[in-house]
Amino acid sequence: MSSEVIVGIDLGTTNSAVGVVESGFPILLADEEGRRLLPSAVWYGKEEEVEVGWTAKRRLALGGVVTSIKRLMGQEARAEEVSAEILKKLKRIAEHRLEQPISKAVITVPAYFNEAQRGATKRAGELAGLEVVRLLSEPTAAALAYGLGKMGELQRVAVYDLGGGTFDVSILEMREGQFEVQSTAGDTRLGGDDFDRLLASMVLGDDWEKGRDSLESARVMEEAERVKVTLSEQETATFRLPFLASGPVEKEISRREFEAGLTDFLKKTEACCRRAMADAGLEPAGIDAVVLAGGSTRVPAVREKVEAIFQRKVEEGVDPDESVGLGAAIQAGIISGAVREVVLLDVTPLSLGIETVGGLMNVIIPRNTTIPCKAGEMFTNAAAGQRSMRLRVLQGERELAGDNWELGAVEVPFEAEGKGQARVGVQFSLDANGMLEVLARDTKTGVDTVLTIETAAVDVTDERVEQMVSESVEHAFADMRARVFTEAKLKAEELLNSLEPALALAGEDLEEGELSAIRAAEARVRKEIEGGASNGPLLKAAVEELDQASERLAALVVEKAMGL
Ligand code: ADP
Ligand code: MG
Predict the structure, then answer these.
(1) How many Å apart are CA 356 and CA 548, to the nearest integer?
(2) Nearest-angstrom CA–CA distance, 522 and 547
(3) φ, ψ of residue 162 in degrees (nearest 5)
(4) CA-CA-CA-CA torsion sign (546, 548, 551, 554)
(5) Is the CB of 296 under 6 A from ligand 1?
(6) Which of the four CATH numbers 1.10.579.10, 3.30.420.40, 1.10.10.10, 3.40.50.1820 does domain 150-316 have?
(7) Cα distance between residue 250 and residue 103, in whole Å
(8) DSSP letters for 467-483
(9) Residues 31, 51, 81, 138: which is the catalytic one?
(10) What is the architecture of the domain spanning 342-474?
């Protein structure tokens, strides 16, 4: 499985990221300094030099730096060129980390992007030397990152995405295993930058920008952002700029003060959420999960507001500013095939079954079945008067029970009957955690025997799964012959056992030729049994011959038995 790597890219207004699925897990790739987010900033020097990301952001106040270019996507060719520089940088980060050339990518776009904006994003990718194999909507990416939609069940998800300068809310609905965007709403001029400006005003007054040069304004905004980020973790933070032209500034700000100032912004997002729900024809109760995206949702008050709006806890487990990038990586992994290992957690990696007569594997749940699942079959007794059967639960891909792994075994009692009269239903239930419950029921008495096997059913290392599957392919022909032989041998023994009693009963009524044909076929069957497993097809033919040769004998036996 050395299929070509496809990377997933979050091409954001403020920050961008590149990710990939590695060993079954989506990760964002870090630059040389270990940073997984790249500022979407591009600096153009006088000599046509170009810097992208952190180095460009540092030159912000000095001029020549382009930021928030995403806002102009689809409106001018320059937007494509600037975006291409960001994409080239992400491509280089990925190539450096993965130590191989990268030429394909999934890129995320806002759900509301029109054809022109999508086309421009695609062209930006091509300019950067990337074939854009899919444009993925950002809310869908976020939902994927949180592991939603795996089961393919109907699921309605609200995605609340508050970034640096834009707010988007989307309602997604799962249909036939795919998320569809049902509605979107938002504000293209609302985001974390507003929070920074708010903090600056809290410290320096509402008209803090007046009379300040761009260099100073940039320093104020930078410090405000630092304070804001600190307040997401701590109750207080100090805004400190000792060298401003207007004099040194030092002020402690509490989270409570800061968050009080956010009320109006958050009310605006609430109105958008209500509109998105109304457009999708939903009340909060109709939503199954709420997912966060965007760095600004790390502000505790934002999260609380989201939970109040949707009247439920938000999904946990993913950094919201990474969710879109991780989702893009997952989609890329699905397309390239790298995600199969992730999917394995939700499917049976190997077939599950039981041993049947003759030591054969009888598959009840085939490998790669999505869990949870339930399946069963009816079995009967191989011998008359048998009072119980040993149920061996097996895992593996080989035809012969002995080549598979035994997960457990249990003795299943049933009422004594003639051969083939008992009816024992065997049902396998595999839950989402990989716990297997085996239920055997004697349908005559209704008595149940239950065997529970914890986790073993899916808890197999990838190497062992691969080994088992490759062995099963390697041995496919031998295994098939073994199965044919075993089945033919069972039939042969049955025929041979009934032959002498039948001849004793009705042999006299046979013609000379008939008797010798039976004896000849019998001899051949015995000889092929001796030959062993590789003789499967020959034994099968011999058994068929004996079956035909003794057809009239069987009819005579029946006549005799019925007194005709
Ligand atoms: P975009 O999607 O617009 O490209 P992001 O999702 O990266 O942007 O969000 C960037 C915004 O998130 C910035 O305003 C940044 O200050 C803010 N942000 C990042 N981390 C935090 C944090 N821990 N607390 C508050 N805001 C944060
Ligand atoms: Mg974003």
Answers:
(1) 27
(2) 10
(3) -115, 105
(4) positive
(5) yes
(6) 3.30.420.40
(7) 49
(8) HHHHHHHHTHHHHHHHH
(9) 138
(10) Sandwich (2.60)
CA distance 502 to 348: 48
Task: Specify the CATH number of the domain 477-561.
Answer: 1.20.1270.10
Does ligand 1 have an atom closer than 6 angstroms to the CB of 13? Answer: yes
CA distance 400 to 361: 5
539 vs 526: CA distance, rounded Å:
9
Contact 1, 339 (CB under 8 A): no
Fold for 6-146+322-333, please state it.
Nucleotidyltransferase; domain 5 (3.30.420)
Strand partners, 172: 157, 181
CB 138 within 8 A of CB 293: yes
| Tokens describing residue 129 | 């030397």
Predicted TM-score (pTM) of the model is 0.65
Atom of ligand 1 nearest to the CA of 165: 3
In the residue annotation, 138 being an active-site residue is answered as yes
Going from the first residue of the chain to its last (564 residues), give the mean pLDDT of each consecutive group of 10, the final group possibly shorter: 82 97 86 96 93 94 91 94 98 96 96 89 97 94 83 80 96 81 92 97 94 90 97 97 92 97 97 95 95 98 98 93 95 81 53 87 84 83 83 88 88 82 86 80 88 68 72 70 80 88 88 92 92 80 91 86 69
- Let me know if 89 is a catalytic residue: no
Supply the DSSP symbol for 399.
S
